[in-house]
Design brief:
alpha+beta, 14 helices, 9 strands
Length: 380
């Protein structure tokens, strides 16, 4: 491989084990991975499109990879992604992202799950694949993924994902599904990070205590000196949204306080939304290891970032429309789309105002831009 950027691509992804029988292999695994990544950046969302794109760009591809036996067929590409180990692929991705993001102390890392609806096959009793993702709000990039067979299994998947990530000094946010004592302990003791977690009915005693506390404090207009607050106001799309964030460090009265590692505060967010004559109000409750109301507010507000990434995967990368469900291919294809999305999002200089969809289209039209994306993501 003649290009230094491709050399670093090999450094991160060239270690993936190839389980194919050596005597029957005519296309190198790293060549297929490189083709798939570049083709996905350029708008290809299935194996047939990848082969067609590579055939049209073969001369350009030979600057980076050997292609000793020409362009692999769509069947070969599909088979490779059906046999490589998704966990190893995900670990390689995480190692690459660790170098690319360089998480700073205080960075907010939301974790949330996304269901790949197209992978379900009810006639065969196959449930849709559910992917749990970690997002770095500091860099607006996905940090890693792990899979579950359904949403209810996020409780076991989240610790697996945490094990893959370097999070020292970060603030991890998870919705109520992840509000579990063992997850909190892993965040604090193993990962040396802080947390802001949503609380709902899966922790009924904890939720009732927090609700009752803030109901009582509201009667005195939150005069307790242990309570700090932040208010934000946003206008747009014909809507006015006001959010009130309340954080209390007065938690010695809580019977469950010692059950949660490094629990230092409880929080409430009141969201007022005015759209025309319609007004809605929503309240959410949280536990956290942070004591600064501004940090608490930022963590709750930034949690939407991972949901925004999920939206991009559906709208721009057509993830929900994908029907690939065989073997390991669905999970590996999900990783491939996240890899490509991060590479496109990394462009904050050349076309920062273009949507991800338009950047993908630009990369398809311009080999110079595609080379630029490789450079900024895999430079020495």
């Amino acid at each position: 491989m003649s290009d230094s950027n491709t050399g670093q691509f090999v450094q991160y992804f060239g270690v993936i084990y190839d389980p194919r029988q050596p005597g029957k292999v005519i296309h190198k695994l790293i060549d297929i991975l490189f083709i798939a990544v570049c083709a996905t950046i350029c708008g290809c969302d299935d194996w047939d499109d990848m082969q067609f794109w590579a055939e049209e760009r073969e001369e350009w591809l030979r600057q980076y990879i050997s292609l000793e036996n020409g362009i692999p067929t769509s069947w070969t590409i599909a088979r490779v992604f059906d046999v490589i180990d998704p966990k190893q692929f995900a670990l390689c991705f995480t190692e690459w992202m660790r170098e690319l993001t360089q998480i700073q102390p205080g960075a907010i890392v939301p974790i949330d799950g996304k269901t790949m609806r197209g992978t379900a096959n009810p006639s065969q009793g196959k449930k849709a694949l559910h992917i749990v993702n970690a997002w770095c709000s500091q860099n607006k990039l996905l940090l890693g993924q792990t899979k579950t067979d359904e949403k209810s299994n996020e409780i076991t998947a989240i610790p697996e994902l945490l094990d893959m990530l370097f999070l020292k000094g970060a603030v991890v946010t998870i919705d109520a599904m992840g509000c579990q004592r063992k997850i909190v302990e892993k965040i604090v003791k193993d990962k040396k990070a802080d947390y802001v977690l949503g609380v709902k009915g899966n922790q009924p005693t904890l939720l009732d205590d927090i609700k009752l506390y803030f109901e009582e404090e509201a009667k005195s207009n939150f005069k307790d000196p242990a309570i700090s607050s932040v208010t934000t106001l946003e206008k747009g799309h014909g809507r006015i949204e006001k959010r009130e964030y309340y954080l209390s460090t007065d938690i010695d009265w809580m019977a469950t306080k010692d059950d949660w590692t490094k629990l230092q505060g409880i929080g409430m967010v009141i969201r007022h939304c005015q759209q025309g004559e319609k007004h809605t109000e929503e309240r959410t409750f949280h536990i956290c290891s942070v004591t600064d109301a501004s940090v608490f507010a930022d963590a709750v507000r930034e949690h939407w970032g991972v949901e925004s990434a999920h939206w991009s995967l559906d709208v721009t990368f057509r993830e929900d429309a994908c029907k690939v469900s065989k073997g390991k291919a669905a999970e590996n294809l999900a990783m491939l789309k996240r890899l490509a999305m991060n590479m496109v999002k990394k462009d904050t200089t050349r076309y920062p105002k273009r949507s991800l969809k338009k950047r993908r289209f630009t990369a398809c039209l311009s080999l110079d831009y595609l080379h630029y994306l490789l450079t900024i993501n895999f430079q020495q």
